[in-house]
Amino acid sequence: MISFVFLGPILWMVLGSVKSDAEILSYPPTFFPSEFKWSNYAQVFELQPFARQFFNSVFVMALVCVLTVIVSACAGYAFARVKPLGSSILFLVLLSATFIPPEATIVPLFQLVTSLGWIDTYYPLVIITVFLHSAPIATFILRQAYLGLPKELGESARLDGASDLRIFLTIYTPLVRPSLAAVVVLAGWHSWSQYLEPLIYLRDTEMFTVPLALTQFYDPFAGPMWGIQMAATTLSVLPVLVLFLFAQRHVISGLTAGAVKS
Amino acid sequence: MTTVQSIWLSLNSINALSGATKFVGMENYVNLVTGDRFPLVFTNTVFFVAAFSILNIAVAMGIALLLNNRLRGVNIFRAAVFIPALVTMVAWALVSRFILQPEGLLDFLVSFTGAEEIPWLRSRWLTLTVIVFVQLTKNVGINVLLCLAGLQAVDRELLEAAETDGAGRWARFRHVTIPQVSPTLFMVFLLTVVASFKVFEVILILTNGGPGYETNVLSFMIYDEAFRRHDFGEASALAVILLLMIIVVSSALWAIRKKLVYAEND
Q1: Strands B12-14, B21-23: pairing kind
Q2: Tens digit of pLDDT for each residue in A162-181?
Q3: Which of A2, A100, A106 comes nearest B243 by C-beta?
Q4: Could you tell me the pTM of the whole model?
Q5: ipTM exceeds 0.90
Q6: What is the rounded CA–CA span in Å between residue B191 and residue A192?
Q7: Residues B222, A233: C-beta atoms closer than 8 Å
């Protein structure tokens, strides 16, 4: 019964995606489509460059994940082990950054993006997302992970003549792999579902990301084309669900590992 | 840095289209507070944040307690609760709108009870509650997982000791379980409060803040002022107010943390 509250909408979406417009608007609604209108799915790709938009989302997400890992691993390690001058103040600033909602700084960011000529490019979606949204929280998670490892590991490696960079890369970083996985999941997920930023930084349909594309299926009278809309939404949900089914255990433990202090 | 920029912009009158900027001091704030839209939006924001945070922690903890029992099919139920969290907010909001539209699935289900057609998306408090519910069902899965992780860390020996001492189910829950999960609950609550100030996609997709400003909240109004009305100054003033609200609420929560959380040792 409670499951239905969570899965019902998804079921209704899939059913709606193969109904004809007439059937969708009929009342009382039919549960099962009387005829399967698969052309809704074809229409998604005809009305918009949906394949390209899908690629945009995947591409941006991949870059965000890679950059977040590099930036936050370096920063997290520095905060945990190297501790440069003023690092505790810097760390506080970083933590407070995770509390600032994107809406609060969107106006100055928009001005910055405009003045750099980054409208309709991937740059703001990757660079601003990494440095403002995903890296701060990732750095926090990785700092905790690096702090949890014994100091003696690095010290004995140093006696064996390993350089600082080598200690960081080959001794400590492989040991925080579970936290790195959590960081990748969080960053990828954040990038994939972002809406406000693409809405403001992108004008060209060719550059749209998936969430932005989903809201564009309207007929000339601004009425939503529900069948096609639901087909597009189903397509957007599908890859995530497939991924989840394959990686259920890792996703769940990854998310809890990052969020609960042990 | 962008925060400082926001504060500076809020003291200027800016027309985003012409690019003209003029220093006007507190004028944006005065205009906002004396206008008739702001009180509406402010109350909506407070209502949304309060209702969402409280309901979220209650529902998350309730489901986590259910899942903590060894029931049949618990894994399926667990996946069911978590799946909406994977779907993007936009997709979830679109599907919700599809269900909530006049003569949609929900109207149909409700018609069995013989009720009149209910204006799910066209009245103030009801619609805000609907928005809370839509946002909640999408994200509660993650909070359930966090609560569950907290519950599973509860000391079994303590629970058994309490049972041999004759403590009933409720007493064990109240005096053994709750204190031990309270740090987790507090973190979940604090994060939800902060996150609930950011509600955006659901509002845009379900109601567009309307009718009028009746279901508008601060984060949405910032977008509306800046990118639809092209008033960057007023949008920045709203952004500063939003930030202040978050700072006040989260530091207040942090200050009373000792009262809420048992055995805090960091």
Answers
A1: antiparallel
A2: 888 888 888 888 888 888 88
A3: A100
A4: 0.83
A5: no
A6: 21
A7: no
